[in-house]
Amino acid sequence: MVRQMVHQIVRREVGRDVRQPVVVGAVAAAGVAVLALVDADRNEVPLCPLKAITGLDCPLCGGLRAVSALTRMNVAEAMDHNALFTLSVPLLVAAWLAWLWASIRPEPRWQPPTWAVPALLTVLVAFAVARNLPYYPWLASEA
User: Fold this and answer.
1) Cα dist. 77→33, 63, 96, 111 in Å?
2) What pLDDT, on the 0 to 100 scale, is given for residue 43?
3) Is residue 108 within 8 Å of 102, Cβ to Cβ?
4) Number of CB atoms found within 10 A of residue 68's CB
5) What is the Cα–Cα distance from 63 to 70, expressed in whole angstroms?
6) Chain centroid to CA 28: how far?
7) How confident is the model at residue 56, as a pLDDT?
8) Taking Cα atoms as reference points, which of 44, 41, 42, 50 lies closest to residue 74?
9) CA 23 – CA 30 distance, rounded (Å)
10) What's the DSSP call for residue 139?
11) 77, 93 Cβ separation under 8 angstroms
12) Segment 68-84, tens digit of pLDDT
């Protein structure tokens, strides 16, 4: 009964359901907390399945080790693990904050432009190809 009352108050005052961004933020914060406790450089974090099977780096290979390095404020090490992910962290945080803010406001939600998803996929594919070429060894994940 109390839960229903709180839910009605939140829905009435906030105007939108804030549970989704709050849950996603809590899960992300818990994941970061775990990675802060684990030494990813000692291979306590499992390899990406694609990397383990083929030896190729996917666009996210090294992402967990990058987060682990960022929890220690070591940006250079994070860039070494996955430059694209490390550079994307401020954008991911901004996107989450925008999502949270949009779920609080009663105004219509902002819609990303139609070119955003194809552009993101193009960047991910280009990064995946570039980090597996011998011309750019500094883009490869070291593990």
Assistant:
1) 18, 11, 24, 35
2) 66
3) no
4) 24
5) 10
6) 8
7) 85
8) 41
9) 10
10) G
11) no
12) 999 999 999 999 889 99
